[in-house]
């Protein structure tokens, strides 16, 4: 039977991939220092915890970096990064007269939350909701749906269900725009590698995913839209197969250098909140070599 006629399109694998990614972000956020362990017998209540940080500057790669998008060389003065969305200054209490404020009060009024602080506060609310579900054995949802999964496969079904609720409610991903097809923003939609193409299509090409962020400052994670299958299609040579892995590493490394120089998001977390999606067997080797 011809394998090329086989089509794969299960939405459950994509949903599972989103949920696993969301759990990794909320439990192992690079800006949060407080983690917890799911426990059936936990009896002590936990208060909401959030770690607020300010963005730290990290030295970007020195010297010009070749752009993957147009094969030009980036100058040493990249364009300014867009500011935070909908930042609102904190409002002073009505009883505080402006002409009687001391320096600390004035700083308090002019203070603006950074995008990192707002994201961490949002993740803290998600963690607290999951803790509450574990302790009370009851999930909280904005809808009337009250389904709790059952079975030995779940370590804690209430935590699992509440995690899914929080993912649907909060989780946002920003796909980078740099790079051109066929190696970027494109992937197979059929055959055995179709999950890679479906994810790229939903999160990037078609833009139909409900998890798509409107702006990078509101994103919990950043998607690097590189297709390993397309690199295998266009960069692999049977007569020179020993050169293929090096080519993959150079392409992805160059792409990371481009986005690290243009945006602050890779450098502020050392790439901890960035991810790629591929079901190709060359993905693991390439990732380890890039690290």
TrEMBL record:
Subcellular location: Golgi apparatus membrane
Membrane-spanning ranges: 12-31
InterPro entries: Exostosin, Exostosin_GT47
Membrane topology, as annotated: Single-pass type II membrane protein
Ranges where the Exostosin GT47 domain occurs: 154-286
Residue ranges, annotated region (Disordered): 39-108
UniProt keyword annotations, A-Z: Glycosyltransferase, Golgi apparatus, Membrane, Signal-anchor, Transferase, Transmembrane, Transmembrane helix
Bias (Low complexity): 42-60
Alphabetized PANTHER family for the sequence: EXOSTOSIN FAMILY PROTEIN (PTHR11062:SF267), EXOSTOSIN HEPARAN SULFATE GLYCOSYLTRANSFERASE -RELATED (PTHR11062)
Family from the record: Belongs to the glycosyltransferase 47 family.
Name assigned to this protein: Exostosin-like
Organism: Trema orientale
């Amino acid at each position: 039977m011809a394998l090329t006629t086989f089509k794969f399109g299960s939405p459950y694998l994509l949903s599972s991939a989103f949920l696993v990614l969301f759990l990794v972000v909320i439990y192992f956020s690079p800006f949060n220092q407080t983690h917890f362990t799911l426990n059936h017998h936990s009896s002590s209540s936990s208060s909401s915890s959030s770690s607020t940080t300010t963005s730290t500057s990290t030295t970007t790669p020195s010297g010009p970096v070749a752009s993957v998008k147009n094969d030009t060389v980036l100058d040493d003065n990249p364009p300014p990064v867009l500011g935070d969305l909908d930042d609102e200054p904190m409002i002073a209490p009505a009883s505080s007269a402006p002409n009687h404020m001391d320096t600390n009060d004035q700083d308090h009024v002019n203070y603006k939350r950074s995008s990192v602080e707002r994201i961490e506060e949002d993740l803290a609310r998600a963690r607290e909701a999951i803790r509450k579900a574990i302790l009370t054995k009851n999930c909280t949802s904005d809808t009337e749906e009250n389904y709790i999964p059952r079975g030995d496969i779940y370590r804690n079904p209430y935590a699992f269900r509440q995690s899914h609720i929080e993912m649907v409610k909060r989780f946002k991903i920003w796909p980078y725009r740099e790079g051109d097809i066929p190696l970027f923003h494109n992937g197979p939609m059929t055959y055995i590698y179709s999950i890679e193409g479906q994810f790229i299509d939903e999160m990037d090409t078609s833009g139909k995913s409900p998890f798509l962020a409107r702006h990078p400052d509101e994103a919990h994670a950043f998607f690097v839209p590189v297709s390993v299958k397309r690199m295998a299609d266009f960069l692999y040579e049977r007569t020179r197969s020993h050169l293929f892995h090096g080519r993959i590493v150079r392409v992805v490394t160059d792409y990371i250098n481009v986005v690290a120089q243009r945006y602050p998001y890779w450098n502020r977390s050392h790439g901890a909140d960035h991810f790629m999606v591929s079901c190709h067997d060359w993905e693991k080797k390439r990732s380890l070599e890039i690290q």
